[in-house]
Design goal:
This protein is mainly α. It has nine helices and no strands.
Length: 201
């Protein structure tokens, strides 16, 4: 009986087989290094040491520390913000606030993104990646909420979805990431009412 040649197929000689557990260990080390020393002082050597691997293992996956950090941001952003569909503008805004407040408490948002925003002012590649990974996805969610509200007659046609992000995510980012304060009891409800009122002006 002739065996299936495909069953004994091996990777071509010299092909790198990247272990996923090593990749995840390196990503975790990148986050820890960023949170500890910041992007400017972060090094491939420090990342490798923290991950318990050699520098070669890092360079097999990413060509530079910038590529590493951009990958970290992209992986975080890929989780995305789900578009709420509660049946009302207030419900959708309230649900978006809950999800956004949870996301902004994530260590990547609260510790890493602020440092990267400083670097983005000097590095267009970082700026473009942050915009594509974070802003573009949020704009898509905002557009869905506004479109549904317009169809229900809750908002006038032509309402700018960016205003939704301004009045919803802006205050949350300021309080949770910049000020690093807790949200007072009832804050989310109050902000939802205020955001809806502002959108209707």
């Amino acid at each position: 009986m002739t065996s299936d040649p495909g069953s004994s197929r091996r990777p071509p000689a010299g092909a790198a087989v990247l272990r996923e557990d090593v990749t995840e260990a390196i990503r975790a080390a990148v986050f820890e290094e960023l949170a500890t020393v910041g992007f400017a002082r972060m090094s491939i050597e420090g990342i490798a040491r923290r991950a318990g691997v050699g520098k070669t293992a890092v360079y097999r996956r990413w060509k530079s520390k910038l590529a590493l950090v951009l990958d970290l941001v992209s992986v975080f952003a890929a989780q995305g913000l789900p578009a709420p569909a509660t049946g009302s503008l207030h419900g959708d805004v309230r649900a978006l606030l809950e999800v956004a407040s949870h996301a902004l408490r994530h260590p990547v948002a609260s510790q890493v993104i602020p440092d990267l925003l400083v670097e983005a002012a000097r590095n267009p590649e970082i700026a473009d990646t942050i915009k594509a990974a974070l802003l573009d996805s949020q704009q898509g969610v905002a557009a869905l909420i506004v479109r549904a509200a317009v169809e229900r007659g809750e908002l006038p046609a032509g309402t700018d979805p960016d205003r939704l992000l301004d009045v919803v995510v802006g205050p949350l980012y300021w309080r949770l990431v910049v000020v690093r304060g807790d949200l007072p009891k009832g804050y989310v409800d109050e902000l939802a009412r205020g955001a809806v009122a502002a959108l209707k002006l």
